[in-house]
């Protein structure tokens, strides 16, 4: 444990009042959205500059103190959980947009900038930051970079990685590195920037990021389609993709929709009750595009792939249709869901989903199971809801026993045990199902280079 003398020394490195040790702060900043590990940090420190972050990291190296980064704490893998007396480095006060370049269509910001803040800034400049997800109103850019966040627009725009033009980072050794410097073309050896994206703070801390922006999409239009079964997903996706440039193709089951509608604040998309639903979005740039979408809908109905559907006719209806998908995670949170975030190549989704659904049904006959995800990029979210008669620990233990079969299936399909939530502590013990022993050895060797004393978010990704 860190003693009072070290805490007093830490306080000299940042502004007065920016080191907290009270119980409420330790609990709040020591956790993320996961509920599997009790937070137990020693202190929370709030740096306001690159120099202060560097000073904290050097202090931690000197005294061999473990550091855990904290952004919006919306993660789902316990990557931002401090459960073993670490010092949490919270970036809430490094939350400024520093520069904008109209020609390069780039914006330089501090890591504590909230995702929605960047989206709104881009909109003010008549541009677009396309990485989007349900927690955009509270997640921070530094955390997005640390987990290579994905979300609902990946089919068109890709992951966070695609939008990082440059980074400034403080390594685990306390060195300040400026990586790529906003360049589009840079063929000068290893792209160290990419190592820090998705590293979950295990190599160092992002202290500044230059993010690329895009043109604003025009006349976004959404359709929600009711499907009869898993097998209808891929032909429906292919039919629309062959004629339209989709910005999203999402999927959710009837159980997910039932949970949303039970709240009473969003109308049902249509009267028919279907086993599965797809939400797709595109830019209706012309009457020709809108007509093509309706023709595709009719074609899918004729083929038996679609049972019913609706197309947005206004901005409010577009928002309501998106809430049917976007509000799922928040709506089921009170049910203490056990989450798996898995992916395979898009073409293998239906067979993969069928196998997993059979495994889950056989082993959890008394549990409510919800499926949803970003089907257009092969990412599925498996959520098992806790029954009222089980304690949280007993419930998680029962769910974990089936992980072996779930992840063995992922491995056979050459998939990933974590598509977009990261590894953290919740998936750490299963990393070998997606990465070979040689790959993991290389990852550990890379960490040793950037973090020789092992102080940066230890125990995350691997032991």
Automatic annotation (TrEMBL):
Amino-acid biosynthesis found in the keyword field: no
Record-listed E.C. numbers: 1.1.99.39
InterPro entries (UniProt xref): FAD-bd_oxidored_4_C, FAD-bd_PCMH, FAD-bd_PCMH-like_sf, FAD-bd_PCMH_sub2, FAD-linked_Oxase-like_C, FAD-oxidored/transferase_4, Oxid_FAD_bind_N, Vanillyl_alc_oxidase_C-sub2
Cofactor: FAD
UniProt enzyme class: oxidoreductase
Example GO molecular function: FAD binding
Protein name: D-2-hydroxyglutarate dehydrogenase
Species: Azomonas macrocytogenes (Azotobacter macrocytogenes)
